[in-house]
């Protein structure tokens, strides 16, 4: 039982990332009808927002500390971050320690701007083009963004630490009545799951309970009719593209301490996220979230040594096997709508 609970927790962790990326993908497809293969790059850019904020906060200047000597008796040069000199050693160190959460404030306007520029500068020219053209151009854009990040940040993963208060693990076993250390789970992964739930809930609430969201949902169902009512639905869809980019970026920001950012991490998640979207049902927001968590949990169970010893390599293909089975029995996915991508 303890092993099962641990794998469920691992699955919720992976599923949170899948669900957030798939949610953004579905928002873009549901509103604009665009298959965006550059969406994984937005996740990567979000992760590097964390790296950028961390580097900015740790910019330092050198001072000579007369109280410290090297082996020759010369005073040592000490690097002091500017934030520590401005706010004091304790407050400055706390700001640096919380660089990842602070990066959320930096990432939101950055990702909204990136999404707006991407949609206005490129995507809008492919609205009425075949999906194959959309895939090719957005995939090419993803490669360009990937290489730009590689040029500025290098090819190696960049460790990005979580705040000290969230380092370490939580003992679920004791809380549930198991032996101590039976179910140990990192604090930051729990934070990530809670953050993902908050973002997902926020997006659904925005679409369900605001006038803007209601108009967007109406436009997703019948774009022409909404346009005939005198509503500029195109502008609202552009804003939704920016929101989708922000969702992917925030997912990347908070994932940085879990998986050190690297230039190809967007591609690593992209294919899996598209599988999640297809399994959940093209254009279905609840389906994307449901499939994200479902496939994350299944992948976690497939990675157990007991399972891999019976079926070697199953952890690498389980998601695709499940996708095949679901699409054979439910061609539109778990919660897909009739007519989406069926013309």
TrEMBL record:
The chain crosses the membrane at residues 15-35, 42-61, 95-114, 190-216, 237-258, 270-298, 310-328. It is a multi-pass membrane protein. GO terms for biological process: amino acid transport. The keyword Transmembrane applies. The keyword Transmembrane applies. Keywords: Amino-acid transport, Cell membrane, Membrane, Transmembrane, Transmembrane helix, Transport. It is found in: Cell membrane. One of its GO terms (cellular component) is plasma membrane. InterPro entries: ABC_transp_permease (IPR001851), BCAA_transport_permease (IPR052157). GO terms for molecular function: transmembrane transporter activity. PANTHER family: ABC TRANSPORTER ATP-BINDING PROTEIN, BRANCHED-CHAIN AMINO ACID TRANSPORT SYSTEM PERMEASE PROTEIN LIVH. Belongs to the binding-protein-dependent transport system permease family. LivHM subfamily. This is Branched-chain amino acid ABC transporter permease. The lineage of its organism: Bacteria, Pseudomonadati, Pseudomonadota, Alphaproteobacteria, Rhodobacterales.
């Amino acid at each position: 039982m303890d092993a099962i609970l641990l794998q469920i927790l691992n699955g919720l962790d992976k599923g949170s990332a899948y669900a957030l990326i798939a949610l953004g993908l579905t928002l873009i497809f549901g509103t604009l009808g665009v298959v965006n293969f550059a969406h994984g790059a937005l996740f990567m850019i979000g992760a590097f927002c964390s790296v950028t904020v961390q580097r900015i906060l740790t910019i330092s200047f050198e001072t000579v500390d007369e109280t410290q000597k090297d082996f020759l008796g010369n005073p040592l040069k000490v690097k002091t971050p500017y934030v520590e000199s401005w706010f004091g050693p304790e407050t400055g160190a706390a700001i640096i320690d919380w660089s990842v959460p602070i990066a959320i404030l930096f990432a939101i306007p950055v990702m909204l701007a990136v999404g707006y520029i991407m949609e206005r500068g490129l995507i809008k020219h492919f609205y009425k083009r075949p999906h194959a053209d959309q895939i090719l151009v957005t995939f090419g854009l993803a490669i360009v963004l990937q290489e730009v990040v590689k040029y500025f940040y290098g090819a190696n993963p960049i460790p990005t630490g979580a705040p000290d208060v969230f380092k370490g693990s939580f003992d679920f076993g004791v809380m549930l009545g198991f032996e101590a250390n039976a179910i140990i789970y990192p604090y930051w992964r729990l934070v990530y799951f809670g953050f993902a739930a908050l973002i997902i809930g926020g997006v659904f609430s925005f679409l369900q309970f605001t006038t803007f969201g209601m108009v967007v949902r109406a436009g997703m169902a019948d774009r022409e009719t909404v346009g005939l009512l005198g509503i500029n639905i195109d502008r609202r869809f552009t804003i939704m593209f920016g929101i989708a980019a922000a969702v992917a970026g925030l997912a990347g920001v908070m994932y940085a301490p879990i998986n050190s950012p690297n230039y190809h991490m967007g591609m690593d998640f992209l294919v899996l996220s598209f599988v999640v979207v297809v399994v959940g049902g093209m254009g279905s927001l609840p389906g994307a979230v449901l499939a994200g968590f479902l496939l994350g949990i299944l992948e976690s169970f497939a990675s157990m040594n007991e399972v891999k010893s019976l079926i070697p390599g199953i952890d690498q293909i389980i998601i695709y096997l499940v996708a095949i089975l679901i699409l054979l029995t439910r061609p539109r996915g778990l919660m897909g709508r009739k007519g989406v991508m069926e013309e």
